[in-house]
Amino acid sequence: MQKGRLPLPPHFAPERVGEIWRPAHGELAASAESWAKRHDLRPAGDDVLKISLLAVDVQNSFCIPGYELFVAGPSGGGAVDDNRRLCEFIYRNLGLLSQICPTMDTHHPFQIFHPAFWIDAQGEHPRPFTLISTEDLERSRWHVDPTVSSALGLGESFIERYARHYARTLGESGKYDLTIWPYHAILGSPGHALVPAVEEAIFFHAIARRVQPDFQVKGDNPLTEHYSVLGPEILTGPEGEPVAERSKGFVDRLLHSDVVIVAGQAKSHCVAWTIADLLQDITLRDRHLAEKVYLLEDCTSPVVVPGAMDYTEEADAAFRRFEEAGMNVVRSTEPIESWPKVPL
């Protein structure tokens, strides 16, 4: 096992974390194998202590300034600074991290949270960041664009009935109202890809430790939001018919690890709801399992859109709840060995 934190490899350019480029995977692979020999890094399969890093939605759409949903956080540079620290954390703990699990928010043009899904009485689509409640639908302020039924191959009456069921179920759950987001993380687009600097770090880890990244695709169901990688917002339709399902197999794999580390974007949404779902599963199994979860508070930021929305308080409150439940809030700059309860 790695003793102490490793230096940063020479290819890492922290000043470029907020940029996009083509990683040179061939050169990176050769460099990673050389790095592994130099620092005596063993295959992850040999690890006695299994440490998993869950990297939530570190994609261009959320992490590159100027892209559709850049997570600026209170500082304005949120996701860029978070990813610089995340890359450094991966490189410095290369020999300790057994598995990296990147999640990929994955969307299509017609989804329930995209503008094209909805129109008002004048036939206009809602602007990004519009909130749609049950009351809005009951007053016919918004309704599903009739052309969506043909786009999705579903009946028009079903879509309208489902939309009311969806908004009502969200409201009853106590979560945010349905939010209309800018088109983002569209499958096949540059926004869908991982941030190059983070992708390089994940690839470098894979080659150096001889282990595949465990990619998790989420969010491609057009009928539900899917903030949490562990499960969508809505599981059933208006008649109780199944619409989507939870990722039980992935939860099992995560909780099989001795240590689960969580980072990514955004703290107020996909990160918070992923952790909340994980905590729900832990509570059903054994509440003491919460002690194996570590939240990198300096590698995640909340959604802040000046003049439109600021979820900083909600994100911080969520992290306080998670800590009260037994999870550990830590910083990436602290050695893993110094974290509380790590069984090193």
The total strand number stands at: 12
Global Rg: 21 Å
- Low-confidence parts lasting 5 or more residues at pLDDT below 50? none
What's the mean pLDDT score?
94
Helical residues, percent? 25-40%
Shape: globular
Q: How far apart, in Å, are the first and last alpha carbons? A: 10 Å
Percent strand equals: 5-15%
Determine the CATH superfamily of the largest domain. Isochorismatase-like
* Main β-sheet description: 6 strands, parallel
Our count of helices gives: 10
Which structural class should the secondary elements be placed in? alpha/beta
Q: For the largest sheet, list the strands in their spatial order.
A: 7-2-1-8-9-12
| The number of domains | 2
Give the name of the CATH architecture of the largest domain. 3-Layer(aba) Sandwich
Helix/strand order: HEHHEEEHEHHEHEHEHEEEHE
Give the topology:
Elements: H1 25-38, E1 51-56, H2 60-63, H3 78-92, E2 99-105, E3 118-119, E4 131-132, H4 134-138, E5 143-144, H5 147-152, H6 156-173, E6 178-179, H7 196-209, E7 216-218, H8 248-256, E8 259-264, H9 270-285, E9 293-296, E10 304-305, E11 309-310, H10 312-324, E12 328-330
Parallel strand pairs: 1-2, 1-8, 2-7, 8-9, 9-12
Antiparallel strand pairs: 3-5, 4-6, 10-11
Describe this structure in words.
The structure is a single chain. The chain is globular. It folds into two domains: 25-107 and 184-292 and 315-338, Rossmann fold, CATH 3.40.50; 115-179, no CATH class. It has 344 residues and is an alpha/beta fold. It contains ten helices and twelve strands. Helix 1 (25-38) packs across helix 7, helix 3 (78-92) packs parallel to helix 7 and helix 9 (270-285) runs parallel beside helix 10.
